């Protein structure tokens, strides 16, 4: 079941990336270079998600407030690394129970990595 969930996330991520590219270019044509860059980014995101515990992944889609409350109840420390497209500085120290998250419109939309 876990691999099915990750595969669904991978396909969704690729679909979003494709839609964003079409929206940015204003056409259905995407250059090979752009397509490869999106695929590479999707691969990196999927690889990063494979290191995220399932109980943390289950919280993605929650409001920021609910995500933080529920993650802390599970023993995690939450660090918002991107909010509404604006990136924040990231501490280089490794914290095993830290979740680096992306927040869009007050909803946690992604966990970039742990630590």
Fold topology:
Elements: H1 2-25, H2 32-49, H3 54-57, H4 64-73, E1 77-83, E2 86-87, E3 98-104, E4 107-114
Parallel strand pairs: 1-3
Antiparallel strand pairs: 1-2, 3-4
Structural category is alpha+beta
Please outline the major beta sheet.
4 strands, mixed
CATH level-two architecture of the largest domain:
2-Layer Sandwich
What does the average pLDDT come to? Answer: 77
- Poorly predicted sequence stretches spanning 5 or more consecutive residues: 1-6
Estimated radius of gyration: 15 Å
Distance between the termini: 25 Å
Oligomeric state of this protein: single chain
Report helical residue fraction.
40-55%
- The amount of beta strand, in percent, is 15-25%
Write down the CATH class of the largest domain.
Answer: Alpha Beta
Let me know the CATH homologous superfamily of the largest domain: Trypsin Inhibitor V, subunit A
Q: What are the secondary-structure elements, in order, as H or E?
A: HHHHEEEE
């Amino acid at each position: 079941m876990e691999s099915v969930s990750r595969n669904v996330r991978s396909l969704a991520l690729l679909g979003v990336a494709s839609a964003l590219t079409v929206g940015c270019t204003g056409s259905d044509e995407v250059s090979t270079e752009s397509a490869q860059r999106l695929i590479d980014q999707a691969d990196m995101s999927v690889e990063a998600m494979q290191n995220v515990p399932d109980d943390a992944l289950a919280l993605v889609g929650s409001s920021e407030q609910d995500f933080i409350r529920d993650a802390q109840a599970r023993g995690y420390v939450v660090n918002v690394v991107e909010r509404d497209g604006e990136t924040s500085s990231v501490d280089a120290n490794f914290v095993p129970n830290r979740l680096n998250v992306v927040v869009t419109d007050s909803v946690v939309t992604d966990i970039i990595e742990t630590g």
